[in-house]
Amino acid sequence: MAGPRPRWRDQLLFMSIIVLVIVVICLMFYALLWEAGNLTDLPNLRIGFYNFCLWNEDTSTLQCHQFPELEALGVPRVGLGLARLGVYGSLVLTLFAPQPLLLAQCNSDERAWRLAVGFLAVSSVLLAGGLGLFLSYVWKWVRLSLPGPGFLALGSAQALLILLLIAMAVFPLRAERAESKLESC
Questions:
Q1: 20 to 30 A Cα–Cα from 97, which one of 54, 66, 145, 179?
Q2: Average pLDDT of 113-131?
């Protein structure tokens, strides 16, 4: 016979979810802002959402390409724009998730909880779509042995977003009727 969970267990689950959201935000900030969106950053290759530099054998230097040259290499402008929109939009939506989570916990508001789940779900879809679209265009230059810390951070953020969604679905917010709203914060 399963009884109600103790209050401390609910608080521990909530704090774990908040910590995971903060870790995802930090990973995405690191990859997209600190690393400037570079997924591969080697001395002879730099490929990211805003950099596309390949090694030039003739001059023995790293040559960065802009859009007319990128389209000739097979990287469409619209595709790269959609990939950027997906990845950076994911960061923005993830930044909005902690506030509804805190409001849901303090006010026992299931609608705010669902809003936070929605933000994280759309963020996960945008990140996966943007990263997948970008990798589909640059796959001939980037191999699995070449990902840099930015790519690993985005991949980890995606995995944690999926884990967050699973945790939030398995352990939904439970409204507590017996306590006042001030005691629940």
A1: 179
A2: 94
